[in-house]
Design goal:
Strand content: 15-25%
Shape: globular
CATH class: Alpha Beta
Structural class: alpha/beta
Number of domains: 1
CATH topology: Rossmann fold
Number of strands: 9
Number of helices: 14
Largest sheet: 9 strands, mixed
Radius of gyration: 19 Å
CATH superfamily: P-loop containing nucleotide triphosphate hydrolases
């Protein structure tokens, strides 16, 4: 009995060691700066947000600007703006190794935080299989990026203003049958250049790196890439492979954003002293999904979300 328990515990520890449990492990592994530590948002705090808000409740930078998670998003903003001093570091892509890392929520809050600082900002949907920007921002999705790329609409037709000053959104629009072809075509690059001329910051929400090829097609056209990694979500190999693929296409990786930090009452949140944090393990998936399983989950959700119809 005892021997069996020991074997089981040993297996759990061994598998748990295959994922990142602390931000400092990520720094040692990749040698890249962590530009933000994003904590879990406590449910009781989300309940304080009125039900009739336009933007989704998870866009807490908008709804609870004084909260610790909002401060964490401001830390990401500060790091990116600092890295952009004296350069044209204005088109920023946000991606993750696989589905479930909290990439879209990070992208939305980061973009809102930029606009709150007075920077003219546009959030551009580039995950055409699982678009979430319109839901997070509470905007109409009839006309968007896809319509512009296909020549069905002007850029101005696809841009939607929001309740936040300095902040616009370009949703997905019509769902395409050929998302990769649209991303890799010259029209997409022309769109980014046009938006670069109009806004101080263009923030791109793109699919996970290990699921489809789109993010690596987008990366060389941007000024910087933020890679979102959730603690305990995937094996370390996911992170290694994602960075390898981004580097292979010459991506300028601005930094890593660590998601899944559980805040404590310790003072000093937002600095780089890891002793101020404890980390959540109860969400560990000890079976760990493979790349194939991660992709299947991504596409399964894509199918569910496309019930409104897919256009050519």
């Amino acid at each position: 009995g005892g021997a069996l328990i020991g074997l089981v515990l040993g297996y759990i520890v061994e598998v748990a060691d295959r994922s990142f449990r602390r931000p400092d492990e990520i720094v040692r592994e990749f040698g890249l700066p962590i530009v933000g530590h994003i904590p879990y948002m406590q449910e009781q705090k989300l309940r304080k947000i009125p039900k009739d808000v336009t933007m989704d409740k998870t866009v807490i930078a908008m709804h609870l600007p004084r909260s610790r998670p909002s401060e964490a998003y401001r830390t990401v903003r500060t790091a990116v703006c600092f890295s952009a001093v004296g350069s044209q570091h204005r088109v920023i892509q946000v991606t993750s190794p696989a589905a479930g890392d909290g990439k879209s929520t990070l992208t939305a809050n980061f973009a809102v935080s930029l606009a709150q600082s007075g920077k003219s900002t546009i959030l551009v949907e580039s995950d055409f299989r699982r678009p979430k920007v319109h839901k997070l921002m509470g905007v109409n999705n009839d006309t968007g990026v896809v319509n512009v790329l296909r020549g069905d609409a002007e850029i101005s037709d696809a841009i939607q203003t929001t309740e936040l000053e300095n902040f616009d959104v370009m949703p997905c629009g019509s769902r395409p049958k050929n998302p990769s072809e649209l991303i890799t075509g010259p029209e997409y690059e022309h769109l980014l250049e046009a938006l670069r001329e109009k806004y101080e910051y263009v923030i791109i929400d793109s699919p996970p790196v290990l699921v489809v090829t789109d993010p690596c097609s987008v990366a060389p056209r941007t000024d910087g890439v933020l890679l979102c990694i959730r603690l305990g979500r995937h094996t370390r190999e996911f992170g290694r492979r994602a960075l390898e693929q981004l580097r292979d296409v010459g991506a300028n990786i601005t930094g890593l954003v660590v998601n899944g930090v559980e805040e404590t009452d310790a003072y000093g949140y937002g600095n780089y002293s890891y002793s101020d944090y404890r980390y959540r393990y109860k969400d560990y998936n000890y079976g760990y999904e493979s790349y194939q399983e991660s992709g299947e989950a991504y596409f399964a959700e894509s199918e569910e979300e496309s019930s409104a119809g897919v256009s050519s």
